[in-house]
Amino acid sequence: MRIVFFKDTVLVMWLSSSPYAIWYCIQTSIPPIYKDFYGFSELYVGVTYLSGATGVIMGSYLNGKMMDRNYKITARETGFTIDKHSGDNLNDFPIEKARARGSYYLLVIYACALAAYGWVVSLHIHESLPLILQFVLGMLCTSFQQTYNALLVDVFPSNPSTAAAAANLVKCALSAAAVAVLQPLETAVGIGWVFTILTILSAGGGFVSLWALRKYGMKWRQRRKPNTAASTEPVVEEVKCVT
Q: Exposed site from 12, 70, 133, 163, fewest CB < 10 Å?
């Protein structure tokens, strides 16, 4: 589990685990929101989960396409030749920039949607709007999880199971902590401020992590190589995510 303590993997895990924890908070908040704020019956409360579920499915499909496109664009810009038969050696390839391509734009949308979700509910705006925001957040949370789970495997190609286990440990711990404070925090400051605070922590930390990862990630990875079990074996580009 030393993987958890490397500089670049800490950043990658935040970008993967934070949206995962936020999505758990959203799922946890759905019953009280639609029952207490909007007066839905239990049957209709259950139906509201379909909005986010549809977003997750769409996000999973579209993000896979986007990851392939980002990889090819970065390879073309750096003069890197993709080997579709034996796989690519990523030692000297900026895989961090390839995976993070476009993430700044997605983070902006994520931050706006997450903050808006809390205030839309707090102000009792029509129930269609939080359903739309659930769809958007489902897509984005899935996108971040897939992209940065894949990056974690990219930087530890010889230890994918260890990398996945470390990522799951961090995701579950962060999700448990977030859900545990959700209700007390809502009671103290209200649901609008709850999701504003979550936006500052998740998206704010995401911007800092993304900046540092793009700027220093490859250097940290290359400096770490001789002292870890990370292999120089080729990695097949088609691997998109770890669930």
A: 70
Looking at the chain, the whole-number percentage of residues with pLDDT higher than 90 is: 67
Instruction: Tell me the Ramachandran region of residue 233: left when phi exceeds 0, alpha when psi lies from -120 to 50, beta otherwise.
Output: beta
Q: Say what the pTM is.
A: 0.86
DSSP 235: B
What's the confidence (pLDDT) of residue 223?
85
Quickly list H helices, the chain: 7-32, 42-47, 49-78, 95-100, 103-122, 128-155, 160-189, 191-224
- In terms of C-beta distances under 8 Å and separation of at least 24 residues, what long-range contacts does 66-72 make, across chains too? 66/102, 66/143, 67/99, 67/146, 67/147, 67/150, 67/240, 67/241, 68/237, 68/238, 68/240, 70/98, 70/99, 70/101, 70/102, 71/98, 71/99, 71/237
Predicted confidence at residue 234, as pLDDT, reads 46
Encoded amino acid at 2, one letter: R
Phi, psi of 39, rounded to the nearest 5 degrees: 70, 30
pLDDT of 243: 38
